[in-house]
């Protein structure tokens, strides 16, 4: 059976990294894989260039004509879409080729269509998609509430490459680094991260470090200046090696307004850097309060400050969280587990195409 995986672009993001992981690691004697995506910073991660098609942004009709040829020439019988737009591409390709192609959709985030009309979204899913893979049970519950049929939904958690994100014991150091790794966009709520740094202004040798780039950069830089935190908060820009950034932190924070199941939580757990996270989306499915990290129910600087203070002053608790977090990732959230479960989804449809 031949499978075509689609994603919008290869810019730095959760869905795009997920696509690259599958492109790098999918392998099975009964399956052959083909890939298509728009350009982006992650293009250099693509390994199977002989089976890869680069799409053009906003050139949807041209893209569909190219993909139609790929589908016909290679006998594609299953399409795995990684965005709502790619679901629409998949539906269009089924109609254009008049072939009984199976359509899978890994849903990474809340879509514009859900925000506009949950009823239209659920009708589209129920009518055209054979399997929706959710990355958390929180998202699965949300789909059920929207009216999507239970039998087409399956949760497969994102997986961490344990050979890339290696566990490291923290060394005692004079400096204590508190980090955040995220796209500098409004929904990541990094203004709140700076507010936490302001709350911790009196803590000596505690540094706050922001990794990532995005449209909110200038606004955040101005806020740092206005609060007089230039010596306390550093912005590093785009991060090429996230594992090294996380390893260099003593604590990671997650302050987003909205999340589904962010990879940075699992990556921090894998490396052994304790994470203090806002309790949103499916984060609590990975991060167990007080056992593998800390969850904070509301955006309270006092609550985050108290957790930072605890880990700053208690090296034994810091180490305990680190070890338990790594063990949990190894057991439940490995890349191998994610790839194996995804392959099983393909194979279950092999006899029906």
From TrEMBL:
Please provide the record's keywords in A-Z order.
Answer: Transferase
* A GO term for molecular function: glycosyltransferase activity
Q: Where is the Glycosyl transferase family domain?
A: 165-327
**Glycosyltransferase subfamily 4-like N-terminal domain mapped to chain residues:** 13-164
* Domain of life of the organism encoding this protein: Bacteria
Q: Does the keyword Ligase apply?
A: no
Which PANTHER family does the entry mention? GLYCOSYLTRANSFERASE
Name of protein: Glycosyltransferase involved in cell wall bisynthesis
């Amino acid at each position: 059976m031949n499978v075509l995986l689609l994603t919008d672009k290869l810019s730095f993001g959760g869905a795009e990294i997920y696509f690259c992981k599958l492109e790098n690691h999918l392998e099975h004697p009964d399956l052959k894989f083909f890939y298509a995506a728009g350009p982006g910073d992650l293009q250099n991660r693509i390994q199977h260039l002989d089976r890869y098609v680069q799409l053009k942004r906003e050139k949807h009709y041209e893209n569909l004509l190219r993909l139609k040829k790929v589908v016909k020439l290679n006998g594609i019988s299953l399409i795995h879409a990684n965005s709502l737009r790619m679901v629409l591409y998949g539906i269009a390709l089924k109609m254009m080729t008049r072939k009984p192609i199976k359509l899978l959709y890994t849903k990474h985030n809340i879509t514009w269509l859900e925000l506009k009309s949950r009823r239209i979204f659920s009708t589209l899913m129920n009518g055209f998609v054979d399997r929706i893979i959710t990355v958390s049970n929180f998202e699965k519950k949300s789909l059920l509430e929207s009216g999507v049929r239970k039998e087409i939904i399956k949760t497969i958690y994102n997986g961490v490459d344990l050979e890339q994100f290696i566990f490291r014991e923290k060394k005692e150091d004079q400096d204590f680094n508190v980090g955040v790794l995220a796209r500098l966009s409004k929904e990541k709520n990094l203004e709140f991260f700076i507010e936490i740094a302001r709350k911790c202004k009196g803590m000596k040798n505690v540094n706050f470090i922001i990794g990532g780039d995005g449209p909110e950069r200038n606004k955040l830089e101005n806020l740092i200046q206005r609060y007089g935190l230039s010596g306390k908060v550093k912005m590093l820009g785009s991060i090429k090696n996230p594992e090294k950034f996380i390893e260099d932190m003593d604590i990671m924070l997650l302050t987003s307004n909205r999340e589904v199941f962010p990879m940075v939580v699992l990556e921090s757990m894998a490396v052994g850097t304790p994470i203090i996270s806002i309790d949103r989306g499916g984060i609590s499915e990975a991060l167990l309060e007080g056992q593998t990290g800390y969850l904070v129910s509301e955006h309270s600087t006092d609550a985050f400050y108290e957790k930072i203070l605890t880990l700053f002053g208690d090296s034994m608790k810091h180490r305990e969280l680190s070890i338990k977090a790594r063990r949990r990732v190894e057991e439940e959230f490995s890349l191998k587990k994610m790839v194996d479960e995804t392959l099983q989804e393909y194979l279950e449809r092999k006899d029906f195409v």
